[in-house]
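Ex. 9. Protein: Methyl-accepting chemotaxis protein.
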Amino acid sequence: MDAVSDAMEVIDGAVAALGETTVSKTVFTETKNELAQVDTENRTLISQTAESVGIMAGKLNSAPDAPNQFGSVAALNVKVTKSLLP
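Predicted structure tokens for Methyl-accepting chemotaxis protein:
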């Protein structure tokens, strides 16, 4: 029974230590700032992609014939796909 009793003490101690674990305010703030930075970068990429799509749509509207429009659509697909890659 001593082995069981000793094991229970170790488990109780580990559970108590886990309950006392906290994240420091500094770590929390740094993580929050990193997430905010990533969010800003993502929003910038989305804006740039939307701008590129708008430019390509303008080019499509000004293309005089179907072959040029097809080429413009193909170029747009390549550009948008590349901009979405990590």
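Check your answer against this statement. The chain has one domain: 24-84.
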